[in-house]
Amino acid sequence: MTAYSDLAAHFDRAAALANGIGILQWDSDTMMPKGAASTRAESLALLRVLHHNMATDPRIGDWIAASESEDLGPWERANVREITRSFTVDTAVPADLVEASSRASSRCEMAWRKARADADFPALLPYLEEVLRLQREIGRVKGEKLGLSPYDALLNGYEPGGRSARIDALFDDLAQFLPGFTEEVLEIQARRPATPPLEGPFAVEAQRALGLEMMKVVGFDFERGRLDVSTHPFCGGADNDVRITTRYDESDFSRALMGVLHETGHALYEQGRPQDYIHQPVGQARSMSIHESQSLLMEMQACRSREFLTFAAPRMRAAFNGSGPAWEADALWRLYTEVERGFIRVDADEVTYPAHVILRYRLEKALIGGEMKLADLPGAWADGMKSLLGVTPPDDRLGCLQDIHWPGGGWGYFPTYTLGAMTAAQLFDAACRADPGILPGIAKGDFAPLLAWLRVNVHGQASLLETDELLTRATGRPLDASVFKAHLRRRYGGEMEHSAAA
Hints:
GO molecular function, one term: metal ion binding
Cofactor: Zn(2+)
EC number: 3.4.17.19
Radius of gyration: 23 Å
Structural class: mainly alpha
Number of helices: 21
Largest sheet: 3 strands, mixed
Shape: globular
Function: Broad specificity carboxypetidase that releases amino acids sequentially from the C-terminus, including neutral, aromatic, polar and basic residues.
Strand order of the largest sheet: 1-3-2
């Protein structure tokens, strides 16, 4: 046995424990009876402490040091790099703080479900204050170890190497671009003939069947995953057991379908990670911005394209026994690319979605930094929505209570959504330039060319490369917001209008 083989064997065992936690968490969010919440919270808290203890085992430092003199290949060297990165951070956080944070998040998640249904932020406030207090402490101790601010230390957990200074510049630029562009798009839409409405109701079972059919079309492996229902759609589960969820509305099937395709993009990434390293840190997803790029590439870039909707239109009609002009491909394309100022992030269109993320990013950064009191969140949220999107939520259910991230302890996560949108545009652009058969394939329901490119350039790379290096190798340049803006202009702006007229 070498030091590296000892290291790899240790992380194989840690992955087995993490996989168990993943399935228990999925069950908590989908099928667990309410009466089991406290018992489940205790179980998850203990398992997370055990996992933390494995991740901070003192022997890891010795194995890392000894492996430096061993003859390792590029994947093994990258694995040591990733283990060193996580070990440095994990050893900064005491086990009792990990346990307290897990318990607080479990309690807060359950309180959030009721508070969200009741639009009752004050009922959630004491639970969320405890989560925030513990997240600040985690950010502080990690930041001291890494030489970062508490917020950047939390961000680093989702986006290794990510820094708020760079995000500030990117998001400030988008915040200047989006309001005026949104107004331009709304004016263009107002000049078009009204999109004929789709007449419901749309039975949940029919929606589920259509979602399953489209998951198969884009390449989801049902031998290693499944589809379920949850309050908040997500992708979770375990290695080779990828669980995705959606939520249904019988008056509108489009939201659930695109939600399924979004989460399927995440799942394809998980299912495409290299099997030889799937239980090792180097075999994990590179970062959350790359993960979000895969969901947004599938949903926004590919499945809201004219090509895909030309393919999908007859299948949608068949699923719901539809007839008439509302079910034609062009009408469905206009439906799926309709821009509207709204309150809910997960239902937002491609143009307004970044504004929802920018708002959350600015608020969570201020809350972690102590620049804003949590009790002031509803008012600050309403002000931000008015400034960025021109709408004011009528209640907190449609405002600051809509997302599970903060109650669940996911602070520093939100900016990765819009970083992911920019990355998705850049990757899809590069893929289509590299293989001109991708869009014609999508028009026939053949996603194999696109999936093959992603397997080579993203999924199969896992964490072998740093984020910027991965993107540069795949697209020829680091993250460039101009590609995302150009995509929006082509699909929604004046360029789209001139193209349609021609």
